[in-house]
Amino acid sequence: MSAILVAGTTSDAGKSVIVAGICRALARRGVSVAPFKAQNMSNNSAVCPDGGEIGRAQALQAAACGLDPSVDFNPVLLKPGSDRTSQLVVRGRATGSVNARNYIEHRTHLRQVAAECLTDLRRRFDVVICEGAGSPAEINLRATDVANFGLAEACDLPVYIVGDIDRGGVLAHLYGTHQIVGAGDRARIRGFIINKFRGDQTILDPGLVQLEELTGVPTVGVLPFIDGLWIDAEDSLQSPLGASVGPATPALGTRRLRVAAVRMPRISNATDVEALACEPGVSVVWSADADQIADADLVVLPGTRATVDDLAWLRRTGIAAAVTARVRENRPVLGICGGYQMLCRSITDPVESGSTVPVDGLGVFDTDIVFHPDKTLIRHEGGAYEVHHGRVARSTEQPWIGDEGARRGVIFGTHRHGHLEHDGHRRAFLRDIAAATGRSGFVLAADTSFHAERLRQLDLIADAVEQALDLDGIIGRR
């Protein structure tokens, strides 16, 4: 069946968003459609119903299609643990660590795995919308490419190239991508897509005409900048310091709740805090400032792919001292996954850090964490999930969620991601935080739906895609 590849001139050019929008638009028309990304590099992941792990962006794209996430949608996932090494996840399961050099040795096998998954999806769905990785112009990697023109060649895919005009230089990016790739790859490019355009398009149009004259490739659509858009980030690096999270909706009462989410160097599954931010009157920012963390109503320590190393970073920056001071004053702190592990008494981690010697945690919870080679992958009822190597070896703490995690007053810890996406759980949690911080003027909405807001975001993208692109022409139905 029909399949296309959406590649980008750069990372964060808008591939994930546009693929999600195309998927959503086609699904609304009743088309049987699925997303696909052969190889992803991201620490933001989700757990599928079968227990496998995929990139969070592909889970969002699956939701856009009306599907549960599946390992078939993202067969190869790289999760960076340092600047030089990444955990390799193949068809949802961790298979070890690789560096940039020895990863090349795996690529022939991985390209075969990706091609087999895509071939199977094309049998099961009418349309498959594939997303490239990084930039297809990295000609030094072309011989072993898994996700861009290597996939397009192996599976005979037409390619559309996305450029982000908001970054500047988009015409040069598109032209340069077209010129630097080989002739065979160049022949696969069916069109350019401009993303995040603001202003009067008649000023841009002459440039698009000249671009087509130079390359022979038409610009098939110009998507507008969608103000207020927030969806799951592909890469935690898209969450810069000081950036607000979520829609920043107005407060219903006279007071707001201020949440500081700690932006750790190896942060993972950073999307957990978006559920808090969707509530009216809850302001969430990414922070690495000890004073801001000391002053916030709630501090969130999110997940990380390097718990021991990021704990050392917390101590160097003074954030650890600010967190423990909050604990002494019984002021709210929430630790999720790696952040929860940091709040424990000790961490023994021969898996990520390679050390068999226990490391002192922050000592908030009387709990010991031991890392195991086998990763825990659990999807709970309601969509919450766990993805971690660290396990509770001993604890005297009161559990917080079911028989898992820990709670001591208004200090919370859990291994579960996505727990706060459940509207009832989130509201109960925020009531406790508001009461503990004396925010009597904070009014909690009774009807906020995180999943409805997420669907509304997908519909915003789909509306823009419908207006900008000839979808029937792109998927070969005209």
TrEMBL record:
<dbReference type="GO" id="GO:0003824">
    <property type="term" value="F:catalytic activity"/>
</dbReference>
<dbReference type="GO" id="GO:0009236">
    <property type="term" value="P:cobalamin biosynthetic process"/>
</dbReference>
<dbReference type="Pfam" id="PF07685">
    <property type="entry name" value="GATase_3"/>
</dbReference>
<protein>
    <recommendedName>
        <fullName>Cobyric acid synthase</fullName>
    </recommendedName>
</protein>
<dbReference type="InterPro" id="IPR027417">
    <property type="entry name" value="P-loop_NTPase"/>
</dbReference>
<dbReference type="InterPro" id="IPR047045">
    <property type="entry name" value="CobQ_N"/>
</dbReference>
<dbReference type="InterPro" id="IPR002586">
    <property type="entry name" value="CobQ/CobB/MinD/ParA_Nub-bd_dom"/>
</dbReference>
<feature type="domain" description="CobB/CobQ-like glutamine amidotransferase">
    <location>
        <begin position="258"/>
        <end position="423"/>
    </location>
</feature>
<comment type="pathway">
    <text>Cofactor biosynthesis; adenosylcobalamin biosynthesis.</text>
</comment>
<dbReference type="InterPro" id="IPR033949">
    <property type="entry name" value="CobQ_GATase1"/>
</dbReference>
<dbReference type="InterPro" id="IPR004459">
    <property type="entry name" value="CobQ_synth"/>
</dbReference>
<keyword id="KW-0315">Glutamine amidotransferase</keyword>
<feature type="active site">
    <location>
        <position position="417"/>
    </location>
</feature>
<keyword id="KW-0169">Cobalamin biosynthesis</keyword>
<comment type="function">
    <text>Catalyzes amidations at positions B, D, E, and G on adenosylcobyrinic A,C-diamide. NH(2) groups are provided by glutamine, and one molecule of ATP is hydrogenolyzed for each amidation.</text>
</comment>
<feature type="domain" description="CobQ/CobB/MinD/ParA nucleotide binding">
    <location>
        <begin position="4"/>
        <end position="229"/>
    </location>
</feature>
<comment type="similarity">
    <text>Belongs to the CobB/CobQ family. CobQ subfamily.</text>
</comment>
<dbReference type="InterPro" id="IPR011698">
    <property type="entry name" value="GATase_3"/>
</dbReference>
<dbReference type="Pfam" id="PF01656">
    <property type="entry name" value="CbiA"/>
</dbReference>
<dbReference type="InterPro" id="IPR029062">
    <property type="entry name" value="Class_I_gatase-like"/>
</dbReference>
<feature type="active site" description="Nucleophile">
    <location>
        <position position="337"/>
    </location>
</feature>
<dbReference type="GO" id="GO:0015420">
    <property type="term" value="F:ABC-type vitamin B12 transporter activity"/>
</dbReference>
